[in-house]
Amino acid sequence: PNPAMDLLCVELPAGSLQSTNYVVRDVLGQQVLRGRSNGSKQVPISDLEDGSYTIELIGKELRSVARFVKQ
């Protein structure tokens, strides 16, 4: 997993960020954060406790899940 501190950078195909929602879940699968990308390639995670998480990106033609570590 990729370590991150305050912002998590996401890379998606061109044009897909405008309509992409995200959900962050902890190791127990509980939702701890959700939002919309609004064209940004960064997700603010500074309010999360240190630990392992998954982020699910959900768009019109996209669904992707990745793991990351908040430090």
Task: Briefly say what this structure is.
The protein is an all-beta fold. The chain has strands spanning 2-4, 7-9, 21-26, 31-36, 42-44, 51-59, 62-70.
Could you walk me through the main structural features you see in this protein, from its secondary elements to its overall organization?
There is one protein chain. The protein has no helices and 7 strands. The model has no long low-confidence stretch (mean pLDDT 86). Helix content is 0%, strand content 55%. The chain is globular. It starts with a strand and ends with a strand. With 71 residues, the protein is mainly β. The protein has strands at residues 2-4, 7-9, 21-26, 31-36, 42-44, 51-59, 62-70.
Percentage of residues in strands: over 45%
Give me the side-by-side strand order of the main sheet.
Answer: 1-7-6-3-4
Q: Roughly how many Å is the radius of gyration?
A: 11 Å
Major β-sheet annotation: 5 strands, mixed
For the termini, the CA-CA separation is 12 Å
Specify the number of helices.
0
How many beta-strand runs?
7
Given as residue ranges, the uncertain stretches (5+ residues, pLDDT < 50) are: none
Helical residues, percent: under 10%
Question: How is the topology of this model organized?
Answer:
Elements: E1 2-4, E2 7-9, E3 21-26, E4 31-36, E5 42-44, E6 51-59, E7 62-70
Parallel strand pairs: 1-7
Antiparallel strand pairs: 2-5, 3-4, 3-6, 6-7
